[in-house]
Design a protein that fits this description.
The chain is an alpha+beta fold. The chain is built from 13 helices and 6 strands. It folds into 2 domains: 223 residues, Multidrug efflux transporter AcrB transmembrane fold; 74 residues, Ribosomal protein S10 (Alpha-Beta Plaits, 2-Layer Sandwich), CATH 3.30.70. It is 67% helix and 7% strand. The protein has a 4-stranded antiparallel β-sheet. A hairpin with a 5-residue loop joins β3 and β4. α2 crosses α7, α8 runs parallel beside α10 and α9 packs antiparallel against α10. The radius of gyration is 29 Å and the shape is elongated. The two termini are 56 Å apart. GO terms for molecular function: protein-transporting ATPase activity. Part of the Sec protein translocase complex. Interacts with the SecYEG preprotein conducting channel. SecDF uses the proton motive force (PMF) to complete protein translocation after the ATP-dependent function of SecA. One of its GO terms (cellular component) is plasma membrane.
Length: 382
């Protein structure tokens, strides 16, 4: 078994732990920085919408040795509009010019063919109107809204509303990061991009639900298992699934990367590259959010839950008694004079740096209490 596989087994059995929940403020800070950069790119540079959304013309040359830069310059001079050029797999060029109508498209075709040393008939031209892209965008947004509503209802029923809210916030994070990368790098937004973004929603949600299922299984023992606080139980659930999430993401990213870097390089640009590009960025963002954001958000949202507070008070009371050498009864009362375990001032909320410290302390406390109890009982018999 590989070291990574051994680590996964130990994480699943609770022998070691990575304190994701304890370090959630660090994850929040990293996330906030990424979101600010993404929003800055989106508001500052904006998205470069493809010809399907703006309208224009697409010209395709026969195989040629003309460079991409030369073709772009000639296209912009011929049309007076912005132009994008892609070299396809057969060494032909795909020249996209936005803002052209039927008349200006014909004039641009003739002028561009002359500057490139081609006959007008050799330069294929396709006129694209903006209505198709607008209709597709509207349908995509409608489908997204329906999807999010159904997801919220399902997660609220299957788990609870806090997990539903955390999952939606993680999805929003994935969308903003993906859109922000497109804005910052200047990638063209095409119908393929829209398809890829919609696919991201499903994958990101799947990964988050897998984590939440284990977290929900662990935290369902609140009030019964008084060895761990809610935050610790949630972190143990996250640790049990983190290797699975990483493995699933790697397996998903490898074929997407092959499509993006190998397939697009051999076949040129087009729908395949557009879908693969949005998928690659979104899958990476979704893996991060399902591990670093979703479960820590649930822990913070649970701060208002009376049941979780009562459970944590009971856990901390037992630990305090064990530390003082007092008897620890399984049915100890929930009274405590300190803050709850889910408060920011309580060190138990952050989990321990040693993976086994919390359970070991609980076990040691129980053994101490029992041994002292036996000692007092023996003294009374003497």
């Amino acid at each position: 078994m590989s070291r990574f596989g051994e680590l996964g087994g130990k994480l699943n059995r609770g022998e070691v732990a990575i304190n994701f929940v304890k370090r959630r403020k660090l994850w929040y800070l990293i996330t906030a920085v990424m979101l600010v950069i993404s929003l800055g790119g989106l508001l500052g540079k904006g998205l470069y919408m493809g010809v399907e959304f703006q309208g224009g013309a697409v010209f395709t040359t026969p195989p040629t040795t003309i460079s991409v830069e030369e073709a772009r310059t000639e296209a912009q001079e011929s049309s007076g509009s912005d132009a994008r050029v892609q070299r396809l797999g057969n060494d032909s060029l795909r020249i996209t010019v936005t803002g052209l109508d039927s008349e200006t498209s014909n004039k641009t075709r003739e002028a561009l063919a002359g500057k490139l040393g081609l006959e007008t008939e050799q330069l294929d031209a396709e006129l694209v109107g903006p209505s198709w892209g607008e209709q597709m965008t509207q349908k995509a947004l409608t489908g997204m809204v329906i999807f999010l509503v159904l997801v919220t209802v399902y997660l609220s029923i299957a788990f609870e509303w806090r997990m539903a809210l955390a999952a939606l916030l993680a999805l929003l994070h994935d969308l903003l990061i993906t859109v922000g990368v497109y804005a910052l790098v200047g990638f063209e937004v095409t119908p393929g991009t829209v398809v890829g973004v919609l696919t991201i929603l499903g994958y990101s949600l799947y990964d988050t639900v897998v984590v939440f299922d284990k977290v929900n299984e662990n935290t369902s023992r609140l009030g019964k298992d008084t060895r761990f606080t809610f935050a610790e139980l949630a972190n143990r659930g996250l640790n049990a699934t983190v290797v699975r999430s990483v493995n699933t993401s790697i397996v998903a990213l490898l074929p997407v990367a092959a499509l993006l870097f190998i397939g697009a390089g051999l076949l040129g640009g087009g729908m395949l590259k557009d879908i693969a590009l949005s998928l690659f960025v979104g899958l990476a963002a979704g893996t991060y959010s399902s591990i670093m954001i979703a479960t820590p958000l649930v822990v913070d949202l649970k701060k208002t839950d009376a049941g979780a507070k009562a459970h944590d008070r009971r856990v901390l009371t037992k630990r305090a008694k064990a530390a003082k050498g007092q008897d620890v009864d399984q049915d100890d009362s929930e009274e405590t004079g300190g803050a709850t375990a889910l408060s920011d001032d309580n060190p138990d909320d952050s989990l321990t740096d040693d993976a086994d410290e919390a359970p070991a302390a609980a076990g040691a406390g129980g053994r101490t209490g029992r041994s002292q109890g036996r000692g007092r009982a023996a003294g009374r018999r003497r």
